[in-house]
């Protein structure tokens, strides 16, 4: 029993609720939200060290033993993601301070933001499939509010689609849970893993696994990404950045959890299909990114490419590939937030997202330009920036497993990613400067440049200092490759079968 | 022409009392029998909605000057803090405790922390349900 595990879920909720009560005190809300997210970050650091020293941490809520009660589990994979989540959400929050607008702030922007974070943290921590569903819903419902908050025409049109898609996939999720419960009689992930291993993963079980794959693919934008480019270009920059950084990653996390802990017996079928989906996602995403001439569209398609790439590490199902996926997941969360903030800043300055109407911004905004350059290189995985190591490990993992095509597609698409993002850089920063400072539609200020600067520093630091987190990533990989560690931590050596 | 709703008004005045009393019964019944915070809260909300329907929203708002969004938030806070209080006793989150006490009027009574949690649930449900009804009624 370790009560620390629950804190990342309840701190944001408590802070958000207090803000609902003090609705009109915006300054207080800003302070409290920063404080809450810092607290989540501190707790996840604490958890990472506890897990390193004592193994996977669990909490049986109310003292009801697994598999009967509600189990909250923090293994290293979740703890790393928690820390990354708190870092990006802190920066997106600071970016929101000056860019989100008074109107949205008064209509519960900060509480919803924190509920979103709570849902994300909850999804990372829960040890129970039904609670995963609940946490997904907490996250999604907050995201519905955030995507439509402000009520511009574009937002309302896109949020209708977004909600519809997610309601459908959530009902499929519930259906899949019901099937799985009917077959195995349990929803506790550790218990499920035991029972599936005992009964064998037969055709029926694999079919249910595919149903889960469809559900999470819809959420993670793995192959079923048709909803993503529209939805992610509608909300304001700070919201789009946090969506791009976190929401698809929660889907990816769920796929990783299920297909390393529960459905890992039929890898020739399930993981092979995951690999194919990843490859198609990368190719289609890269084609979209190369084809469009609109900053928002290019960036959203880059999110899709990233999803496909992370998933190929899972498809290989080797320690090397997994480790790469974890590295790349951390990198991708940071870099997607950064690149969306940068893109949003360019659009804010130029007043348009069409590349052909933007030119020569670097004369007035040299720092912004060079930070964009660094982010672009990092996104494509150029050493020594943060994307490099993940890319190397994932590619090695796929080669080890004999999926040469998957590794090759990963490398080719990263070139296309580099091209697409350089296209933004060259078009908007190079060339003749049309706009003088006075003619620009917006300005930069501390609250917007600070998060961008910090995230840029982080992507460099993560690249140069990847040795420092290697120990943690190693532990995370180990516990994912050996489901028995997770099971023992949850069930505590109980004889229940 | 003003509609004649004397019957509705007089019935509501009595019925709301019955509904509210019954919801308190439901609320406490939930500890060992069917009922509890959710259903109790929902029936309180239905009583309030009946009031809103019979008398207009402005009148009720003058008499019950409560922001129901805050009620909902307050309710969830109570529920979470009840759960979180077990952190201070080094027990797992959401742990519950109960005991039997001899109270002056009630005699031997069971007091349980789960009721506090239920109060939170009830307030959250009341707040949410009434907020939903009120916001639907706002714009035509």
TrEMBL record, chain B:
Top-rank taxon of the source lineage equals Bacteria
Any GO CC annotation of this UniProt entry: plasma membrane
For this UniProt record, the keywords arranged alphabetically read as follows: Cell membrane, Membrane, Transmembrane, Transmembrane helix
Outline the extent of the Na+/H+ antiporter MnhB subunit-related protein domain. 7-130
Q: Read off the InterPro entries from this record.
A: CPA3_antiporter_subunitB, MnhB
- Where can this protein be found? Cell membrane
Q: Name one Pfam family in it.
A: MnhB
Q: Which family does it belong to?
A: Belongs to the CPA3 antiporters (TC 2.A.63) subunit B family.
Q: How does it sit in the membrane?
A: Multi-pass membrane protein
Q: What is this protein called?
A: Na(+)/H(+) antiporter subunit B
Which regions span the lipid bilayer?
Answer: 6-28, 35-55, 71-90, 111-136
